[in-house]
Amino acid sequence: MSYNSEESESTPLLRGHRVSVQTRGLDCRRIMVQVGKLARKHISNACNREAWKTRFPITKWILKYRVNDLTSDFIAGLTVAMTVIPQGLAYSTLAGLPPQYGLYSAFMGCFIYTFLGTSKDITLGPTAIMSLMTATFAMSPIKDDATYAIVLCLMTGVVQLVMGLLNLGILVNFISHPVINAFTSAAAITIAFGQVKGILGLKNIPRDFLEMVYETFKHIPETNVWDLTMGLSSLVLLILMKKLRTIEWKDDPGTTPSRCVKVARYILWLVGTSANAIVVISASGIVAILLSYDVDKLSITGHIKSGLPPVKVPAFSVSDGNTTISTKEIFSGIGAGFIIVPLLGLVELIAIAKAFSRRNNYKIYPSQELIAIGIANIVSSFFSSYPVTGSFSRTAVNSQSGVRTPASGIVTGAIILLALQVLTPLFKYIPKSALAAVIISAVIQMVDYEIPRTLWRVKKLDLIPLIITFISSLAVGIEYGIIIGVGISLIMLLYPMARPKIKTVPTDANNILVLKINHGLNFPAVDYILEEMEHLSEKDGRYQSVVLDCSHISEIDYSSIQCIKEMIVEFARRESKIVFACITEKVFQYIKYAEINDLVVSATIKDGCRILQDELKKELQNGELPHTLGEATVIVDISSRL
Fold first, then answer.
1. Do the strands 634-636 and 599-602 form a parallel or antiparallel pair, or are they unpaired?
2. Cα 159 to Cα 377: distance, rounded to the nearest angstrom
3. How many CA atoms lie within 13 A of 379 on its CB side?
4. Residues 6 or more apart whose Cβ sits within 8 Å of residue 437
5. DSSP labels for 450-504?
6. Tens digit of pLDDT for each residue in 313-367?
7. Per the database record, which ranges form the STAS domain (predicted)?
8. What is the mean pLDDT of residues 180-208?
9. Measured between alpha carbons, how far is 547 from 560 in angstroms, rounded to an integer?
């Protein structure tokens, strides 16, 4: 520990004197003044112009908006709407709700994000993960009832909004990438296999993955050939058509494609982008033709409630005949969903926003994104929505369509409202197998096949949370799989703190052991460090004196102070000594105020060894100072206060 030379001359502590350390009283008046200044600073920061611009990002681009921006945003919004309408209808069935709820959930988030979002590419709405989570945590015991899902949407928004206002987006960083990848892959497999029953035309298949797999294979003989043909045809067409939007045209250097070629390429890209809408419309047309000839062989969506959703405050109870489900029962039924769903929505949104902000070279603000999605979920719940978040597939479509600003969301939302008002009578012809194909084609790309190989090459230990999360998500349910995965990640993160490596440092001093702790001195490691030091300091049945290198200890807590006290007492009992060397200024201040008896601190390892060689223990017992004490060496003996 290095000190200023002038300070060393003027401070008795640094010249090796015994000092009396007393706990300093706190000046309450001064604290109140500081609190007042801090409060005024935060209020001032919250009320200035830049703060309002941060809270309402639309103010940063609306004044620069031009006709070219409007054209690009209109095309992007229209393209996204053609994607979200069939996806919304499909995802609502995945959530265990009637099809119209997918569209109820698709428009309000687009409007809200236009005003509050910081990413030009993000589009909010129903997603496969949120739909599966809704089915997992918010399935009402009453058929076709959305009360649980709407309550979950409201509370998800409240949690996300509070997290955003408190800048708690950092919590996402505690969920490691292997856990997120494993969870996403397991969820994608669960969702995709759950749609196999739709492709095969099977009914009454359970939702739990293992039981679902067993029952699906068991009922394969009951397959509806018409549904199978429609489903497989739709799936193949979707896969092939979506490849059209990713074609990389290789033109000869120095040549420019003609206008006709550019138009043809754009049409192909548009067909690939609108694959979901084209397949669903075509399949619905086939069903309508078959029904006109009295051929009723395909499983279809059936009647869908037409018109816009009712605007009302979410209900916290629901009645079914003579039975009423109370607020307490609804909250108890959702349970852990109030925590897991907001966090997953946050993870999905921030991951997408960061990916596209890096790709398109702009900056996003995670806390503001949390506020945007929180308010979007709160407001959406008044329009009968279930929880929404950012959609990767639709965000990719939005970006590839040349979107300029978040205003494209207004176009998307308006078209969805138009579809609800005008087109819902036609949705009844949509075959369930075609919707199942839409979901499978959307989620299959979420499975990350490369990450196990990458982790094997980079860090094999990270395969542990990946494998455990993946298996547990499939075996016991994805709601428990993510919790188990986060738990494993936290254990692996905290393990080095609880079991720090204690290294023996070579020294020329005889019968003196120099040890170095490489991960700090934190309360989970206290007992382990004491045991290891006892083991390492024992030699031929006797205990060596120890110089402990504390240069890696940057923080200290109450348990650490107790550990230091126990070390001193334990070494004294063995008739040996311990010196704490290289303590940082900050840590030393904490130790000084802790009033630790017989504490010996040295600035360097060399000074610590010198103290022990001069038989510090005997000289302290006689009330004398060691004659070889250096200027930067400190002895604190609280037992004899001045």
1. antiparallel
2. 10
3. 17
4. 195, 199, 231, 232, 234, 235, 238, 279
5. SHHHHHHHH-GGGHHHHHHHHHHHHHT-HHHHHHHHHHHHHHHHHHHHHS--EEE
6. 999 999 877 788 999 999 999 998 999 999 889 888 888 888 788 778 888 888 8
7. 502-636
8. 88
9. 17
The upper half-sphere exposure of residue 525, i.e. CA atoms within 13 Å in the direction of its Cβ, equals: 24
Residue 282 is predicted with a pLDDT of 93
Distance of CA 209 to the CA centre of its chain: 24
Q: In one letter, which amino acid is 311?
A: V
pTM summary value: 0.74
What is the residue extent of each domain of the chain?
5-25+500-636, 60-249+262-473
Cα separation, 539 vs 571, whole angstroms: 14
The class level of CATH for 5-25+500-636 reads alpha beta
Cα–Cα nearest to 363, from 611, 117, 175: 117
Secondary structure element (H or E) that encloses residue 600, with its range = strand 599-602
Task: Please tell me the distance from the alpha carbon of residue 72 to that of residue 74, in angstroms, as a whole number.
Answer: 5
482 with 344: CB under 8 angstroms? yes
Please give the radius of gyration of the chain, using alpha carbons only, rounded to the nearest integer.
33
The answer to whether residues 100 and 424 touch, using CB atoms and an 8 Å cutoff, is yes
66: its two tokens: 């031009």
